[in-house]
From TrEMBL:
It catalyses: (S)-malate + NAD(+) = oxaloacetate + NADH + H(+). Gene3D superfamilies: Lactate dehydrogenase/glycoside hydrolase, family 4, C-terminal, NAD(P)-binding Rossmann-like Domain. The keyword NAD applies. Pfam families: Ldh_1_C, Ldh_1_N. This is Malate dehydrogenase. Residues 5-152 form the Lactate/malate dehydrogenase N-terminal domain. Belongs to the LDH/MDH superfamily. MDH type 2 family. InterPro entries: L-lactate/malate_DH, Lactate/malate_DH_C, Lactate/malate_DH_N, Lactate_DH/Glyco_Ohase_4_C, Malate_DH_AS, Malate_DH_NAD-dep_euk, Malate_DH_type2, NAD(P)-bd_dom_sf. It comes from Hibiscus sabdariffa (roselle). Its EC number is 1.1.1.37.
Amino acid sequence: AKEPVRVLVTGAAGQIGYALVPMIARGIMLGADQPVILHMLDIPFAAEALNGVKMELVDAAFPLLKGVVATTDVVEACTGVNVAVMVGGFPRKEGMERKDVMSKNVSIYKSQASALEQHAAPNCKVLVVANPANTNALILKEFAPSIPAKNITCLTRLDHNRALGQISERLSVQVSDVKNVIIWGNHSSTQYPDVNHATVGDKPVRELVKDDEWLNGEFITTVQQRGAAIIKARKLSSALSAASAACDHIRDWVLGTPEGLWVSMGVYSDGSYNVPAGVIYSFPVTCKNGEWTIVQGLAIDEFSRKKLDLTGAELTEEKELAYSCLS
Ligand code: NAX
């Protein structure tokens, strides 16, 4: 039998946490033959709710779940973890300045970076979900210098899956038949959902949709603003789709992407496609042997170029804002 993998979920008493931990315990993240030990962290204010989640995990009697650590102690939470899914953060509240929210998250991610660096298992893979996801991941990277930069990523798979979903609905085809959309840049409303290389079967999506106006307009804004549409409808932000996307992200990263298929991940930019280096930027990637590689050589037209630059500029600006919170 395989050794259990230790998976940390921060913010585990929250909405996404509640959807995510049962998925992990059922093997949806790491495979149906992979035992797991869940480490769940939240803040003291949520300790009782966190304990309730632990009780439900016990009650669900998941065969793959070999242990549960539920704690408000960041060192205990991080000790020995192989995978860390960072869902906990400080949400933007009405009337709050952007800088104030950034400042709260910078201090959370700075301290959790140190705890992971000192106590996580070697080669721990980190996925940041909490917003601002790209910049939280960047702060985590900066303050955990001994964790390889390639091990620190952020979630844009939800946006990627939303783009697949929109194309599937529009063409009335199975979502699993839509391939190779791309989310470029920031997990924010400046992200660029790109279908220029996407296919259904062996046909380009653009040829099948036959409506460039929709693809260059409403399709993009629908994906960019899907989070707000969910909040409007549910009075709560996306949770099950975010949890599912987090599982997709880690599964593909650890177990590999199928031949010919790429996915979107926020990764430490090397300046590929002439986007800013040194920020966490979402790119198309393939994964093999537990490592991602940016898909190279895709043609970028003028329309796309502007959008890649715009979301890149926002990330540079966020990075500066985050740094200004440090001093
Ligand atoms: P909730 O507010 O339901 O849960 C967040 C949890 O984090 C709470 O239980 C809170 O007590 C905890 N927390 C706060 N500070 C913490 C700390 N320092 N250490 C540990 N835990 C801490 O939010 P939820 O709806 O679950 O969303 C979580 C995060 O995901 C938010 O930042 C949200 O903006 C972000 N999202 C990111 C998405 C993405 O695609 N990257 C999509 C979904 C989601 O909006």
